[in-house]
């Protein structure tokens, strides 16, 4: 595995010797994120910030169960237990004192970011990236300082909404390189979710929840059902969630359709089908409106931004709003929300938050954020960021030159 890692990080191909598909894909993502194989995780939260973040984080309520299940095992085996948030920032790292001292040398400490985009392939970071339990052994780690370790981690979700909260991890030596380690940490994660469900039982009449960020077909949780909506129904619910006072038929037609030839009959047919799916108790008419309150993920992000909670807003931003939609109202909402979040990140100038956006699928070509990141990152990470920024500048210049050429040809 070390030979495969050396060959790959030197620019060679994967495959000789063979590398697990999970690890190979993670190594490729690490390279795309410009992670240095010789780098180390960076501490992002000081003691005061860490204390506040721990206190407010939902996983704090599950820590007694996690400690009860893993504490003695970690101490006796000279292992560590770790719990991170959904951004990969370590909230708790506990266990054998000697192992804790050794782990500090690679910054495996509370407050450090171990997301895949920051620290390369590692169990908690990769578990968050692929949203499933992961075991990473020795030289499978992308960064060399972590290759003396073996770890297993499993994601933890909110038992009600399904939202990713973070991950629970066990880290230690070669003794953890066993399938039982992965099964063990997965069982602990499920126990943590069960504890959270007990502490926050579902209300008798939970409000419908609309998830429309990062997906073309919205998901509606309604009365215990999970409905995947069609693209047009997704657009309609997004518009009505944004306009709780209701929208008249003629206005809704202009908000949803680019084609001015679409008739009111078409819209009425769509609304009839949607009412049959949702029920008349949720979808009212004259004007078209949602009869009750609906929790929508894009509105939650908007509220977080309005209150100044930029990190929380970014954590809940799963991607652009209905990214494939061309409905005029959705396009405006999508661009407005992304623009507000991007501006807040640039203004905050936090390198970790900027990196989360820049290395995402929707931020990899975002020149403004990459420029802000180049000004904010520590000196050790600056060369990789500047290289990406130069490539973006070159692509922009090439595109501008091509546009000028086509314009000149058209004029001729």
UniProtKB/TrEMBL annotation:
Which keywords annotate this record?
A: DNA-binding
A GO BP entry: regulation of DNA-templated transcription
Q: What Gene Ontology molecular-function terms does this entry list? A: DNA binding
Looking at the record, the residues that make up the OmpR/PhoB-type domain are 224-290
Organism of origin is Streptomyces showdoensis
Its protein name is: Transcriptional regulator
């Amino acid at each position: 595995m070390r030979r495969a890692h050396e060959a790959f990080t030197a620019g060679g191909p994967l495959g000789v010797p063979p590398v697990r598909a999970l690890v190979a894909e993670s190594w490729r993502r690490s390279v795309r994120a410009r992670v240095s194989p010789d780098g180390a995780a960076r501490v992002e939260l000081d003691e005061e910030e860490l204390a506040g973040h721990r206190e407010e984080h939902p996983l704090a309520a599950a820590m007694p169960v996690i400690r009860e299940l893993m504490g003695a095992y970690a101490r006796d085996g000279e292992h560590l237990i770790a719990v991170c948030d959904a951004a990969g920032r370590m909230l708790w790292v506990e266990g054998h004192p000697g192992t804790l001292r050794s782990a500090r040398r690679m910054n495996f400490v509370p407050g450090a970011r171990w997301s895949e985009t920051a620290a390369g392939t590692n169990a908690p970071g990769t578990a968050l990236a692929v949203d499933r339990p992961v075991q990473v052994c020795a030289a499978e780690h992308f960064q060399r300082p972590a290759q003396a370790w073996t770890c297993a981690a499993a994601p933890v979700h909110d038992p009600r909404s399904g939202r990713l909260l973070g991950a629970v991890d066990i880290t230690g030596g070669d003794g953890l390189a066993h399938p039982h380690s992965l099964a063990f940490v997965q069982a602990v994660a499920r126990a943590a979710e069960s504890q959270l469900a007990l502490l926050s039982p579902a209300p008798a009449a939970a409000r419908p929840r609309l998830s429309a960020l990062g997906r073309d077909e919205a998901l509606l949780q309604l009365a215990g059902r999970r409905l995947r909506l069609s693209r047009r129904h997704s657009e309609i619910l997004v518009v009505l969630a944004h306009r709780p006072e209701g929208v008249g038929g003629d206005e809704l037609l202009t908000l949803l359709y680019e084609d001015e030839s679409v008739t009111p009959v078409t819209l009425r047919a769509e609304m009839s089908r949607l009412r049959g799916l949702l029920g008349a108790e949720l979808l009212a008419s004259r004007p078209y409106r949602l009869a009750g309150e609906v929790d929508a993920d894009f509105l939650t992000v908007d509220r977080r931004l309005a209150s100044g909670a930029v990190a929380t807003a970014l954590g809940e931003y799963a991607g652009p709003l209905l990214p494939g939609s061309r409905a005029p109202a959705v396009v405006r909402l999508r661009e407005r929300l992304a623009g507000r979040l991007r501006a807040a990140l640039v203004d905050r100038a936090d390198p970790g938050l900027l990196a989360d956006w820049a290395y995402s699928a929707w931020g990899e070509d975002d020149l403004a954020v990459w420029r802000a990141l180049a000004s904010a990152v520590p000196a050790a990470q600056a060369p990789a960021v500047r290289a990406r920024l130069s490539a973006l500048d070159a692509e922009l210049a090439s595109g501008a030159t091509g546009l000028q050429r086509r314009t000149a040809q058209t004029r001729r």
